[in-house]
Amino acid sequence: MNKKRLIIILSSIVLTLAVILLCIHFLGERQTIVQVIAGKESNNEFDYKIIHKVNESSDSNYLVSPLSIGYAFSMLNEGARGNSKKQIDEVLDSYQLLRVNNVKDRIGIANALFINNKDKKFINKYYINKLDKEYGAEIIFDKFNSPKNVNEWVNKKTFKMIPSALNTLDPSVVLVLVNTVAVNLEWEKEFNKENTHSQVFTKVNGTTIESAMMRSSNDVKYIKSDKAQGIIKNYKTYDDSSDLEYIAILPEGDIKEYVNNFDNKEYEKLLNSQRNGDGEQLTVNYQLPKYNYDFKYENIKKDLYDLGIKDVFGTDSNLKGISDELNLYVDEVVHKTHIEVEEKGTKAAAVTAITVKNFSAAVDKDHEVINIDFDKPFVYIIRDRKYKNIWFFGVVYEPMKWENNN
Q: Where would I find the H helices in 57-100?
């Protein structure tokens, strides 16, 4: 590969959840059943809708969790009626409720419904019970004088990777729906830190930086399509339901164009091409840069509107399943993520928060050797191996600089 050619890198981390969630609290905490949104055995179209939208407006490192966004809007949809519900149904595209086990300090999916104390009498008990029983949502009553309690909850549920979701919390807000997805995963086979070295990484504009590049061989599966090549690297398994893996994809051409056209057909083509780099018939030598960054999806509300969720953001909103008496609408949608990839493993987290207001209150046989260096922008995904769902999808335009390597 020509390290100096101009090419867009897509680093796509997809953390996909397909078993959905029987949330078990350890150390004496109560057991809670959490049913979460996940796709079918093949990836849900909603994932690609979100991926394509964020890619349109991003020319630097990004990471989204379609899973987290899907959770939050599924909870909202439980209270939607009429055309509002129809629009959300069409965009979510038949996400199914499945189960998975939370693993303490390793894998966590959590939901919460924060309700303003002054409005709690107006919220339908049916809606509260629905979120409690089917999503394992914590029901929390708050004065909404500040976002402190919401943010502390988010910080805890994301293993302290995302300290806050909301900058402010208007007292006129009736309720806040929150979902978090967090993982702290160890590689099945760690990178040897002594092999991490300084290497040139070529950015989209053709300039270069000295990146902190990890190096290994024969502990991955090699994947290839006519548009890209890449690797699949396993994480440790913590119980029967935690079967996550990391996918790094290096497009042959323009990375932005590749992601714009990334769909289930390409995804399946890559997955179906898997070959074990076991050192016998195939040797896979690969280099992967360390990276860590935070991302806020600034255009999420506009993008969801463009995808077809329109009424809940305006005067035509019908959320009568949440409250018969109030005229509720969605005021704000927040989506934040965090990612760290290094020698020992991966830490990733996402939060999606939806604030809801009331209009009246405020309007081969031969041995083969393959060398693959992720030394330019690339895509990465974190997914569930069994169900193929995308948990996180990201693009790395610029990894960690060598001078910052510890």
A: 66-77, 82-92
